[in-house]
Amino acid sequence: MTPAPSDHFNGKTFLNPGADAGRGGVLDLIRWKAAGRAAPWPAEVPVEQRRPPAPPGGPGLVATWVGQSTFLLQAAGLAVLTDPVFSGKAGPLGRLGPARAARPGVAFGALPRVDAVLLSHDHCDLPTLRRLSERDNPLVVAPVGHAGLLASAGVRRVQELDWWEAAAFKGAEATLVPARHWCRRRPFATNVRLWGGFILRMGGRMAYFAGDTGYDDRLFLEVSRRFGPVDLALLPIGAYEPRWFMRDAHMNPPEAVRAHRELGARRSLAMHWGTFPLTDEPWDEPPRALRGAGGGPVFLSIRPGESIAA
After folding, report:
1. For residue 238, which of 200, 197, 272 has the smallest C-alpha distance?
2. What is the dihedral of CA 197, 199, 305, 59, to 10 degrees?
3. Distance (Å, rounded) from C-alpha 51 to C-alpha 24?
4. Which residue of 62, 75, 165, 297 has the smallest Cβ count within 10 Å?
5. What pLDDT is attached to residue 170?
6. SS3 content of the chain, % helix, strand, coil (to 5)
7. Distance CA 266, CA 217 (A)
8. At what angle do helices 253-263 and 285-292 cross, to 10 degrees?
9. In whole angstroms, how far apart are CA 140 and each of 96, 127, 227, 286, 309?
10. Which helix (H) or strand (E) segment is 80 a member of?
11. What are phi and psi of 102, to 5 degrees?
């Protein structure tokens, strides 16, 4: 699927409308790594693996945080996974990627049958997607440009979406919405695939999965304008230091609180922290910073394996 040129596609590559394209290149990456200011992580973050709860018998939604940006979302007769990562290394480089410090809060074998996967961008875990395809053959809903990559991992059911397009499955609906990020699985192939978050309607509830995103002072207000208040928002709070390099791709906790408020979310859950050592902040700083920024009973940071009903 090749979209028509638009405010986020120039005919060859995708972009963030109105964003500064000058940050995030190889020279900036070298500058960041050369500074050597990353806080040390423990070799292992303790995680008590749990079995996911039973889905609601009637209307309702249960969200279980597996780790990083992986949530298991369950409604009556339906199970959806977001950005599934069960491998021991992060990113497209396989064995060369950052090592996982916190094991999944739900073991792969304890997952119920997965009906659909929501994939935010191409920094995805192909081995996990291959295992899911072999076991459950779920529908993978992904941004434009991912079909070939997913086919290479043996994924047989893929539906690509452009921003604001929707896919329906088993009485649910997932709409791809913009995110402020980028894509690159190999050098010299930057932004050849789109990225995004999702609005998911299932179980009589509406959830927002932000995917991997930086803060944008228009994005969350626009999502709220189009869809109204969401019952549950899944928002990233980690991988944000140093700000000069990370702010265009990853929100920090104060920005995540702003996003929560601009969405009008009835409840938000934190993600994208404490799993892989990706950036410079200490592994356990994001939830402390979230509390300091005004996160509270309606914006929670739960542990891997824990569940919240919406």
Report:
1. 272
2. -170
3. 39
4. 297
5. 96
6. 20, 20, 55
7. 20
8. 50
9. 26, 14, 23, 30, 24
10. strand 78-82
11. -115, 120
Q: Sign of the CA dihedral 42, 44, 47, 48?
A: negative
Distance between CA atoms of residues 282 and 129, nearest Å: 29
For residue 68, give the DSSP letter.
T
What amino acid occupies position 22?
G
- Do residues 165 and 184 touch, judged by C-beta distance below 8 A? no
- Torsion over CA of 272, 278, 280 and 285, rounded to 10 degrees? 30
- As a whole number of angstroms, the distance between CA 120 and CA 167 comes to 14
Phi, psi torsion values for 289, nearest 5 degrees: -65, -35
Residue 80's Cα: distance from chain center in Å? Answer: 13
| Single-letter code of the amino acid located at 288 | R
Q: 43: which residues sit within 8 A by CB, 6+ positions away?
A: 101
Token pair for 72? 């298991």
Identify the pLDDT of residue 20: 60
The residues that bridge with 89 in the sheet, in sequence order, are 99
pTM comes to: 0.96
d(CA 48, CA 68): 15
Q: What distance in Å separates the CA atoms of residue 28 and residue 274, rounded to the nearest whole number?
A: 24
By CB neighbour count within 10 A (0-12 exposed, 13-18 middle, 19+ buried), where does 270 fall?
buried
Task: Compute mean pLDDT per 10 residues along the chain, 310 residues long, and list them.
Answer: 89 88 71 92 96 96 98 98 95 76 98 98 95 98 97 97 98 98 84 97 98 97 98 98 96 98 98 97 98 94 97
3-state secondary structure of 260: helix
